Amino acid sequence: GLPGNVVVSVKYILTHDDRLKFLYEASTDKETVINLTNHTYWNLSGNFKRKIDGHCLTLYCSDYLPVDSLQIPTGKIEPV
To answer: At 79, is the secondary structure helix, strand, or coil?
Structure first.
């Protein structure tokens, strides 16, 4: 747990140029370290009875963040 109480909100924003942005806000009543992330699974079919394991997502990226053996980002930015 965290010391004290934490209130968190997130907004999902789809921009006009088809970018998905996540806007996080958090407030606490005691000093604490907070590191918010996202592990959302999206059902892209529009049919909520279908599973998502058949989806294929293509990302057009020039760089990525390598991870170590514990899947923690190394801090480097590498070309694809």
So the answer is: strand
